[in-house]
Every structure is written in structure tokens, then in C-alpha cells.
Design brief:
single chain, alpha/beta, 2 domains, binds fe (ii) ion
């Protein structure tokens, strides 16, 4: 596509220098992280560490059966446990308020545990604050009040390898009247502890493994090229790319491959650490209207957009693309950065194909009729577009979407 190759006037991909880059760095990382097969057994030990007596577990119906064992373990240790398993896939304000009312009716808690995907963990993170501080969720979302201190101690236990919500200080809530997801971002939302047990992800079906894994890979790739990227996100991004690239095909082919599952879970966690210290960019911005208006799965929309947006970003970012190609163990030895960058973009297309991810939005029902609405929606996400290494105009977005329809 010739328009992609036009002279880049506004490319600000950070150059590699002896001092990697000069962006200010802030590393946010949960306080304690237990990782590895069987590490869920650390939950009771962690509850004791936090001196908990009454534990609130927030989860979803789809993974509620995974809660039985930790619940029994906590109860055997003498703790009172309440389980709320009503978190929907994309919780909105009313959903969170209903869970808060349910929790308050159940009594006081001194520990919140989120077990599930991004939705359950996002609700658990904000619930720890709401229950401790009597804040009104709508006031927090409208930024009428600020979160000024930590909430109840909390532990996040992901059962998917994608969002990285277990590592971020964010809680994403859908606000139906704006048809928009709003992110509550506060350092006080950063989890106190995380358990990364790959055994909890074994039952994820192949398509969900593929799309959530590609979401995690997108986090790492975008953060590595983000204008907000820094020495910390660079480090974690390359490791996330290495782990996910070497294992995502294996995990999709054989869901019981524990080593591959462990790589994906760690990669998704490192991707979350990247988001916390850096930011995603145009892939996530262009995916927003696909999720908001068309309810397309977040990971799937990111996966479809990733190769096209990276082809656009390639101009001016060759050096970083070449580094990511090496992290993916692609055969780029002896190639100059420009050639290695092209191999990297092509490898993303091939990865999608191998994982069974469609190469267009057309097959998902998006038509040329939807084009302007998509561009309008994406153009509003300036918070992410501003971090893209290459300035992206509405015309650029139109080109990218149109080529996928
Ligand atoms: Fe994402």
C-alpha cells in the first residue's frame, strides 16, 4: 500500500542510543507475585499474610468452578468466605453497583480476591476501594472525587492470558449512556498480590487462547513502540514478546501444554506491567469502536488490526521492529533493520493465519457502510493515538479500516 510508504514527517519512535531513551520511568508492579503451576495454593498463605478474617471473592459464572478449591482451603484455615460470581463479560456501572450492594449486604470484608479474566479483576480492584472508602462509583468515573488512598488488601488471580489486568492500576467500566468504556486509573488500584497459576488457564478454548494471547502480544508490541515507552517497559515488552511468540501456537494447538500456558500467562503479566508504565497506541485506539459499537471481542479486534497498524508504523521504527523480530526468534540474521522490520510485520500476519484469526473485518460483518463510524470512534481515542510513534490522521485510519473491509 503506497500510502503507507509516504515520507514519515511525524515519526517519533524512540531512537536506540547508548542511554536507551530519556523518557521518565516509573515502574509499577504488584507487591507480591506467586507464579508457576500449582501456585494457587499460595492463596491461603497470602490471606494470612494480610491478616484476613473475612474474604470476598469476585469471579464470573464461567470460572466459578475454579473457585471451589481455594474457597475450601480458605475456609479450612478458619476464614469466612463470600463468593460473588455475577461479574458479566464487560461490566457496566449498574453491574458494578449491583455487586457492591451484594457485597455490602454480606457484611464487612478485610480481603478482596478477583479470580477470572479482565472483567472480574477490574471489578475486584475497584471494589476493594469502594468498600473501604464509601466512594460513589459514578463520582469516581466522572472524576468528581479522587481515589486518595489504598482500599482493602486485594489479590488478583487471572484465569486468562490476555488483559494483564492483574498488573495494572486500572479498572475499566462500561458507561452505557456514553457507549464508552471509561478507565479509572489510580496507583491505589495496583493489586497487592498476584497469583499466576497456568493450571487455571488449561480449560480455555483454542479461539479464546488465540485472541487473548494476541491481545497480550499487542500490549507488548505497542508499549515497545509507544512514545511513552521507557527503559522499564522496553525490558518487559521484549520478554513478553519472546515468551508469547514461542508458545502461543503450542497453547492453541494443545491447551494442556502447561509450559506453553505458563509462557502465555507470564507474557500477559509482563504486558500488563508494560501498560502500567507505558501505554498502548493506535491498535487499541482503532479496536475501541469495534468493541464498543459492534461488541467484537477485544483480543480479536486487536489481532486483526495489529499487522495493518504495524505496517503503517514500520516507517521510521525499523530499528525497534528489528529488535522485536529478534525477540520473536525470526530468521533476520544478516538483514538490515529495514528488511528485518518487514519480516516482523509479515510474521504477525502469518501468526494470525496460524492461529485461525480472520485476516479481515469483513468476515465479522463489518461493511464499507460502517467505515465513517469506525473512523469517528477511533479518532476520539486521542489518549492512545497520541502515543503512536507515527502520527495517524483520519485519512490514515480510513485506509487501514478500508483495507480490512
Ligand atoms: Fe488490550
Amino acid at each position: 500500500m503506497d500510502w503507507i510508504r509516504q515520507a514519515p514527517e511525524h515519526v517519533t519512535c524512540r531512537p536506540e542510543t547508548k542511554r536507551m531513551n530519556s523518557n521518565p520511568c516509573l515502574l509499577l508492579n504488584p507487591g507480591r507475585v506467586h507464579a508457576g503451576a500449582g501456585s494457587l495454593s499460595a492463596l491461603t498463605e497470602l490471606a494470612r499474610y494480610f491478616r484476613a478474617q473475612r474474604v470476598l471473592i469476585i469471579t464470573t459464572k464461567s470460572v466459578a468452578r475454579l473457585v471451589d478449591a481455594p474457597r475450601q482451603s480458605l475456609e479450612a484455615a478458619g476464614l469466612a468466605v463470600t463468593v460473588i460470581a455475577s461479574t458479566p463479560p464487560e461490566p457496566d456501572v449498574a453491574d458494578v453497583q449491583a455487586i457492591e450492594a451484594q457485597a455490602r449486604a454480606a457484611g464487612d470484608f478485610d480481603l478482596v480476591v478477583g479470580i477470572g479474566g479482565g472483567s472480574a479483576m477490574d471489578v475486584a480492584k475497584i471494589m476493594a476501594v469502594l468498600l473501604a472508602q464509601n466512594l460513589d462509583l459514578r463520582d469516581v468515573l466522572a472524576k468528581k472525587v479522587e481515589i486518595t488512598s489504598r482500599g482493602l488488601p486485594n489479590i488478583m488471580v487471572p484465569t486468562t492470558s490476555g488483559t494483564g489486568a492483574e498488573a495494572t492500576p486500572n479498572s475499566i467500566i462500561l458507561v452505557p449512556e456514553y457507549a464508552l468504556k471509561i478507565g479509572i486509573v489510580s496507583p491505589y488500584l495496583l493489586p497487592d498480590a498476584v497469583i499466576l497459576d497456568p493450571l487455571l488457564t488449561l480449560s480455555l478454548p483454542p479461539d479464546v487462547t488465540a485472541s487473548t494471547g494476541m491481545d497480550a502480544l499487542t500490549h507488548a508490541i505497542e508499549c515497545y513502540c509507544s512514545k511513552k515507552g521507557n527503559a522499564f517497559s522496553d525490558l518487559y515488552a521484549l520478554e513478553a514478546i519472546r515468551l508469547i511468540a514461542r508458545s502461543i501456537r503450542k497453547a492453541v494447538q494443545d491447551g494442556n501444554d502447561v509450559a506453553a500456558r505458563e509462557d502465555l500467562l507470564m507474557g500477559a503479566y509482563w504486558g500488563g506491567v508494560c501498560i502500567a508504565t507505558s501505554s498502548t497506541t493506535a491498535v487499541h485506539a482503532l479496536a475501541y469502536p469495534l468493541g464498543g459499537t459492534y461488541r467484537m471481542a477485544h483480543g480479536l479486534s486487536n489481532a486483526i488490526l495489529l499487522p495493518s497498524v504495524m505496517a503503517f508504523n514500520q516507517v521510521g521504527c525499523e530499528l525497534r521492529f528489528a529488535a522485536m523480530a529478534r525477540a520473536m526468534a525470526l530468521p533476520v540474521q544478516g538483514l538490515d533493520d529495514q528488511a528485518a522490520a518487514a519480516v516482523f510485520v509479515q510474521a504477525l500476519r502469518e501468526l494470525n493465519r496460524d492461529l485461525g484469526i480472520p485476516d479481515s473485518l469483513k468476515s465479522l460483518g463489518i461493511t464499507p457502510h460502517d467505515l465513517e463510524g469506525l473512523v469517528d470512534g477511533a479518532a476520539k481515542v486521542t489518549r492512545l493515538l497520541d502515543n503512536n510513534p507515527r502520527a495517524m490522521t483520519r485519512e490514515d485510519m480510513r485506509h487501514i479500516y478500508a483495507a480490512l473491509i
